[in-house]
Input
Amino acid sequence: MARKTVKRVKTGSLERRFSLARAGFLAGARYATASAGTLFSAPDKREERRKAILSQRAEELVAELGELKGSVVKIGQMMALFGEHFLPEEVTAALHTLENDTAALEWPAMERHLKQQLGTVKLAELEVDPEPLGAASLGQVHRARRKKDGRELVLKVQYPGVADAIDSDMRALVRLLKLSRLVPITDQFNQWLDEVRAMLGREVDYDLEAHTTRHFREVLSEDPRFIVPEVFSEYSSHNILCLSFEKGLHISDPKVVALSQERRNFLGRAIMELCCREVFEWNKMQTDPNFGNYLLQIDEEGHDRIVLLDFGAIRDFDDQVLGPGREMIRGAWHHDTERLVRAMKALHFLSGDPPRRVQEDFAGLCFEAIEALQDPDRFPPPASVVNEKGEYLWGESNLPSRVLNRASRNALSVHFDVPPKEFIFLLRKLLGAYTFLHVIKAQVRGDTILGPFIHMHEDDDKARVDQQLSESAKKS
Output
């Protein structure tokens, strides 16, 4: 079936502001009217009715957002992904339904854009497929071939005007949320809006993405398990990123599922080790755990490789966050509740001096979160998810959902503060790696993966936790 196309992407500030304001006003008016009706409901039905109304109004608002495409859609997706701690669950659920725009910009308009960005001479060196490989809310991807040597390339092309519309879209979206009355506008919410703005700014910064792609290509150059695309600067610009075309299969492809257990274990171990290197070695992390960012190259001789794609969501992490974060991992690794609680206090999401029961409850959550990475002889996981070799059976485990459910319950505690946004990224990174191993049904001993990393920077991280706790004590 032919892909849906559009002649242009709406980036005009006035028309987008009008659409957003209209959506917010209607949602707010409907919510206020419907809420008034709940005053006549029985007390035991009032909260249930309120949630149903909130859910319906949120769905209507999201439907309006989806019509605008561009950065508004991306902003909504980011808020859904990282906003569980400050958005009503009904609003988060509605935002999760936002999908990337699958309508592509028509080729005549795209060709004009390519000529403006690369120049007629450079573009003439390439044969560009007019049919995009994929289209999303911020841009689309085209295959290309360099005429002089047949080199296969891809052009990641940002839609014209999208980057310029981000700030106006953000301001308009804040006004929309105020009008809609669906979200409490708190300091915490405003801080997260700032983070969403920064994340989106990084995602449309193709110069930064080119630099980050080169960095990961360099640090992984001696690891044959991974492929990072090559950047071609001569065909790149502020709005175009040209990369080598890398073939591969999606991780859920039947050919991947049909691989031997040994080969799937190899791939799972590689992804988990990559996660550990990001946290313990590089202080750089891919914060988007989207499976679309991975392709698998299956080799007839069994030398399978993982293609890493899309470095627009890479974040640099400060040791002020990762230091205590690594200490939390060590505390969980050793089942050391005191060490774990100190690290959590240093990260400012366990407040005051909580009762021992609360500390043990939080510690239990962390112990469970890394059950697959611990020594199964010292700290045995449930018998149903480990084999006679001590290997964790990822295909049989529901660990990610167990952790998220338990975390949601713990978050209701009066002793729990909203964790730093960087820690949310760290947790999502870990759960993303877990889900990868679950999908390919890997069977690996996680302690042999995490073990070599556990003592890296240990003394420095301990000292950093002590320092941060001391500074917090002086302020209180």
Notes: Residues 13-42 have pLDDT under 50 and may be disordered. The longest strand covers residues 139-146. The longest helix spans residues 43-68.
